Amino acid sequence: MSSDRQTILTSPQLRLIGSVDEAMYAEFRDQLSAAPTEGPLVIAITTLGGNPEVARTMSDDIRLMREPGREIFFLGKSAVYSAGATFMAGFPVSHRFMTKDSSLLIHERQITKTINLSGPLKSCTDQLHAALNEIEHSIEIEEAGFRAIVDGSNVSFEEVQERAPENWYIGCEKAKELGLITDVI
Q1: pTM for this one?
Q2: Is the four-CA dihedral 127, 128, 130, 134 of positive or negative sign?
Q3: Could you give phi then psi for residue 69, rounded to 5 degrees?
């Protein structure tokens, strides 16, 4: 790694820690508005997870900033779990880094839902169809996320699909070996 890149990565302009939720998104937007508008941007994150839709929103903000050609780097520190991995998937592998002794967690989306059927039988089938549609749509989003996180790596979509149900913890050196990140700093 070049010394210029090393210097850039060790001084992140955005530092996020905690649950990926609406509060983190507000902090992300606040720090982003205070960050330099030109030159490389480094976003460091430590998270045990959270809301995957918030992570996808943050990733989309990054994509929109990258499209005009701005270099934006991801720096995972300590723990990049669950929704943190979803956020990381929004960066190309060439711009993903993790710090020494950090780890990544990739797993399936989860749902907790109780369905209480009540009313005419035909409306009950509508309630069941609505729940099934929600699950199927969430699976489509999950699969798109899996494809994004492995894009450009040595990991196949099928492998991440196979490993995710077991809560796939990946140390930073293994993540580098698998091509999920560019380097460990």
Answers
A1: 0.91
A2: positive
A3: 110, 5
